[in-house]
Amino acid sequence: MEAETPASEDPGRKRRVHGMLKLYYGLNEEGKADEEPQSLDPCDINGPHFDPEHYLNKLRKECSLAELMDQETCMVKQIRSLDSDMQTLVYENYNKFISATDTIRKMKNDFKKMEDEMDCLSANMAAITDFSARISGTLEDQHAQITKLSGVHTLLRKLQFLFELPARLNKCLELQAYSQAVSSHRRARCVLQQYSHMPSFKGIQDDCHAIMDKLAQELRQKFRDGGSSAKDLSECVELLLQLDEPAEDLCEKYLNHAGSRLELDLQSLEAEIRPSPPGPALKDSSTRRPSPSVTVGSPPDGTAKTSALPSPSSNTDILEFIDRGCNEFVSSLCLVITSYQELFVNHAQTGELASKNIPQMANSKLHAFVDDLAARYFSLVERRIKEEKGVADNSLLVRALDRFFRRLQAVAKLLPGSSVPQQGTEIVIRAATERVKQYLAALQSFYMDSLTDVRQALATPRLSLAAPGAGSHFGGSTSGRDAPSSLPELLSSLSASILNQIKSVLASVHLFTAKDITFSNKPYFKGEFCCQGVRESLVVSFIKFVCQSSRQFCESAGDKGGSTPPALLLLLSRLCLDYETSTISYILTLTDEQFLAQHHNPVTAVTALCAEAREAAQKLLNHYVKVQGLIISQMLRKSVETRDWVNTIEPRNVRAVMKRVVEDTTSIDVQVGLLYEEGVRKAHSSDSSKRTFSVYSSSRQQTRYAASYTPSAPMDTNLLSNIHKLFSERIDIFSSVEFNKVSVMTGIIKISLKTFLECVRLRTFGRYGLQQIQVDCHYLQMYLWRFVSDENLVHFLLDEIVGSSAHRCLDPAPMEQSVIEVICERG
């Protein structure tokens, strides 16, 4: 048990044991005396004023016997604990006690030796003091004489210097030691001026002035020659200032001299900029695409378009040009600023010069000088940047602008308050903005070129716009070498190429905001450039351009929709619809993620762009329906207008134009089905293909037209027809279609049959003419009902066509149903 006791000791008690020595001497943990006030309570057993008798009396009065016994037991334990702690303290510090004893013994011996040495030193110092006093007394008489002789010697040396000064100055002038000459003259100038009333000193002064005038003339000539280095020039200016040359004139001359050197640098830079001669080659290449990596719908000859625009006509690229400007002009300008400031601005002025405010005057001249040269340099830089028309590699321009911006920061440090850094930042901003405009123009050009490729692909006979086996009206085989084999592939290729081009452009523009680019930390590139420059001016503007340029295809004149292929209208409508569905959101999300744009300013909402894209898709699809409907209508109109319906022969087959209408409608249905979903149809009746005959030859039809066969009752027939129209559902021929195949085909068929109806109303028919219309309508009904959303619409319009023919028939005698069926099945 006793062996386990040390391991289970309370850590607080162990610390108390180690701190016992400090407590004994009244020190705290930091080794300083405890500043707490001492207790004055006589019952405080740990206090210095403890009174045993008083403490015992208090215990006897306040405590019972049991409490006294407990108190005794507790006190015995504390005494034993203290004894144990003291014993432990002695054991732990035994070596220290021994060492302290030895140290004290050694100190006693050392101090005894030190006292003896101090007594010896004191005796020696007393002897030295006595010896020094005797020497001073001995030399006291000669000290005054030595001081007087020393003063005379110094005066003679000064006089010797003055008399030798003209010769010394001439020697320095011969050796071109101008600095030493000026220094010597400045040392003697005040003395010569003070004693100029004496003839000898006056002569020396005149000779010195003549020599110094000659020296100043040589310095001015050296200053004007301009062939000296910057260090020699600075020394020359400093010497002229010491010779009391007017500071303002020196500033002007120094800046003019430096300006002549900087002018050579500017002329050298300007020689690198040559105006590009206008020519067809440059004009041609300026419309090429911004990237050769993506081609859409390559033309038949397989020639890929390249997007790299020509580099400037100058011999050096933009990075070399900026490097040369920074290494020559900007570095020289910084050196001139530093030297000028050391000479005129930061130079300590004394005497009369201090009262002339030379630093303020010199600083204002320096600012004007720097601003003028910087403006010319910036003009050259902007001219060179404008030559950067190619957008294939943007990294070169960004690196050049970054280097240009960083080197201008040296001017900002050397010349606080200068407008040069701000002007440089504005140049960088304008360059970035112009670059965004160039990328927008390149994207627009790429999009228009892609549409041209699509139009060429649509006009190429190798391209099959329909699915395999769907008919050959829109092309032959699919043996094109690189062309897409169907409209979906063409749409996918066009959409992917545009999206890849946008990503490529965003990656290029993102270089302006890269972390290793110095000017990217500017507020403009963190906010407005990302928000207004890239998102609005580039991405949003391009999306709007796609929608607007697509809508322009709907403004073509002519019955057949001008020169725009209907398949292109259909493809663009699907492209705009895909943009509204997902592409716009994806592009804007990608832009916001790459540029971390904080939209402090109002921006175009995604919903607004999607609405614009959907509007363009709707307009294109409506126009497609109108164009295709007009193409079929034109065939029907010509077939009605060019035939003599009164004297025609008895029908034996279906007219060829009706077969062509069915074929074209089938091809259009296949074409639309490649890009749009089927859509919703109403339930078809089981006898849809036979209802036409039953409608036209049934008892209902005979009842409707029975009166017309009798010449005595034309009014009753018209009345029955009008009553029938009142209860029929109104058909809106040119209403907007939905984005599905059934709705598109319904719109086209409505336009075609309505045109057929209107043409029939303008003609007069004989018996066989009416029967031919019956055969044609029955043939149309056999095939057209399956394309529309509601077969009753086809029935109604064909019913109207036969009815109008019967109204305008001179001898209305309808053909038998069985005969019509035989002719149509045979036809």
From TrEMBL:
Subcellular compartments: Golgi apparatus, trans-Golgi network; Recycling endosome
UniProt region (Disordered), positions on chain: 272-314
Which Pfam families does the annotation name? Answer: VPS51_Exo84_N
Tell me one GO biological process term: retrograde transport, endosome to Golgi
Q: Which domain of life is it from?
A: Eukaryota
Q: Which InterPro entries match?
A: Vps51
Keyword Transport in the entry? The reply is yes
Q: Which UniProt keywords apply?
A: Endosome, Golgi apparatus, Lipid transport, Protein transport, Transport
Q: Where is the composition biased (Polar residues)?
A: 304-314
Q: Which GO terms describe its cellular component?
A: cytosol; EARP complex; GARP complex; membrane
Q: Subunit arrangement? A: Component of the Golgi-associated retrograde protein (GARP) complex. Component of the endosome-associated retrograde protein (EARP) complex.
As for family, the record states: Belongs to the VPS51 family.
Q: What does this protein do?
A: Involved in retrograde transport from early and late endosomes to the late Golgi. The GARP complex is required for the maintenance of protein retrieval from endosomes to the TGN, acid hydrolase sorting, lysosome function, endosomal cholesterol traffic and autophagy. Acts as component of the EARP complex that is involved in endocytic recycling.
What is this protein's name? Vacuolar protein sorting-associated protein 51 homolog
Q: Which organism is it from?
A: Hippocampus comes (Tiger tail seahorse)
